[in-house]
Amino acid sequence: MFKIVRREEMAQGTVVLNEIEAPLIAKKAKPGQFVILKANETGERIPLTMAEADPQKGTITVIYMVVGKSTAIFKELKVGDGYMDIIGPLGKPTHLEKIGKVVCVGGGTGVAVLHPITRAARGSGLEERFQNLPALPESSQLKEVRRISITAVGDLWSQKDLTEDQSKSLWEEVGRQVFSGDIRIGNLEFVIQTTDEPKSRMVHCVSEKGGLPMTGDERFGRFSFLSLGNNHINDFSSAGMNDTRRFLDGLGIAHAGASRADREEDSFPILTRNGIKVALLSYSFTLNGLSMEEGLERGVNLVRFNALKDEDYDPSLIHRDIATARERGADLIVCCNHWGLDFECFPPPRLVKRAHDLIDAGVDIIVGHHPHVINPVDIYEAKDGRKGLILYSLGNMALFSFPRAIAKMGMVADITVEAGIDTTGARKVLVTGCSLMPTYLSMKTGPDRNAYRILPLFREAENIRQGNPPPYLSRGDARRILSLEALFRKRFVQKNLTYR
Q1: N or C: which end of the chain has fewer CB within 10 A?
Q2: Would residue 99 count as lying in a domain?
Q3: pLDDT tens-digit map of 308-361
Q4: Is the dihedral of CA 453, 150, 321, 381 positive or negative?
């Protein structure tokens, strides 16, 4: 028997903590692993992530929600009672770099939504770096200045019930900010499919009608570029990729990251605004294990950004595209990278190094996505003196399916780019400004339809504090907005950036 030595009830008894004597498991357990518990001879086996393991005390700690018969039986166990069987530790441990004690609490085997790691890896120096960013160059360095703005957002995820006639409120509160840029960038993390009988290998496929709201709003405008280099672009094989490209072509939206053929040459666009030519590149670290079809093995731009070992990371594809972009006359190179770790609020040190190397190689701006939570911004001075802007993750712009509050937060980046003549008479193109607007995802359920809104976090928080919450906010939304605003100001406000 595995005796319970400590028991706590939380959330009005719906969540229960058990500290259990299991010395052999506690001795071998590592962060991110789980155990399987069985209360009695006829009980069901339940997998639970270990919240903590103490090899000195010989105990493990699990936290579970009471949702069915088996967890109801677990709840009846008191201090001194025990579980009949516990098997573990099981599962692959979380990869940690220069890190201290970490506790991850999850709802079961394989659940991605663990408690986010909101502090940088101890000893890595990342938090200090991000809090002391160097300043971007000033436009006063240039003469005959031409200026453009680039707005960028994070993940855009389809909702099957969010069709055009149900999306009037989606962009209403942020549309002017998102679509005000001369170039507007987002990450399209789903596939359009038009066949009569979809045979999607995963769930992230919708019709053209379902995908249209994520591309913009006729009142404010649409994205001018959508990144297709992500882990869901292959969910419907080449048919889905081709349908998605045709759909975007029909809307006049440029794209990159996925090709109709096996790695089309020059498969990225260069957009010209106010005389400044901007190349837009796109890459993904994975396709979720779904292989490309024969003859299309290189149909998606794959770069193993997250590789644990440097010898497994090969950025040569990006380097070739940088050279091609310069040959085609690009003044500025924007690289959209699908990378990073789910629900971690700081990039791992190896990713920071690889981002810096890409700036050294000629990239000017990196727009990151995939973690589903926001990450800090980085300003890095390249070896040639340029200052590159790195947005490691802009979080979720429109992704309503994750329940955790922090996954409801995203950012709109408004980036200023200026071109002019420097004191030597040479033409220079500089990134001179970055303003960030945190956002909140609100979904209000109704008897016939759900109302989806993307809201400016700071504005709504101030309205709530003034006693003037808008009618579309629930009490739960109001609480979460105030909590997220406090978290953002404490963890993500950085020197030499502006916020709105």
Answers
A1: N
A2: no
A3: 999 999 999 999 999 999 999 999 999 999 999 988 899 999 999 999 999 999
A4: negative
